[in-house]
Amino acid sequence: MAVGLFRDWQRMSRANKEYLEKQGRPSSYVGQLADIPNRMREAADATELGLRMARHLELTNGAGLPAIAIVMSSHQVGSYAGMSPVLRVQARLERADGTEPYVVTSDQVVAGIHLPRFQPDAKLAVMVDPANPLDFAVDWIRTGQLGPPPRGSVPGPGAPGARRTTEE
What is the model's pTM? Predict the structure, then answer.
């Protein structure tokens, strides 16, 4: 029985080593100890991102101030929330309360289907955080009402995900 247990332990140890190496992480005991600060930093980043997503949900559910964001630039920062990438978006905010327009840079978790909407000069309906006017959340329902989506953000006729229109 001890031999079978030892073999199982060896198999699990080998699988763990392969898994860590595929992720580019150290697989030795000392290497894993040295990597703890990196893992802790990643966990803190994920926690901060989760808290920001919860705040953005509050903003779009009525706690925010309505505004229009005109995208100046956007790029992926390399982090993901689940399967959704995090974009760093620089935008010009035009608030509905008459505040002078200003430029902000904000990290946004964006579902893959919405990525094409973050092209330069695209308009997004957003809700600005009254406690932090440099943060905003995209209100996708109001954004859909602003006008036609940018070219390429909706599948063309016959493409996967395309829907029939009344014009056909």
Answer: 0.64
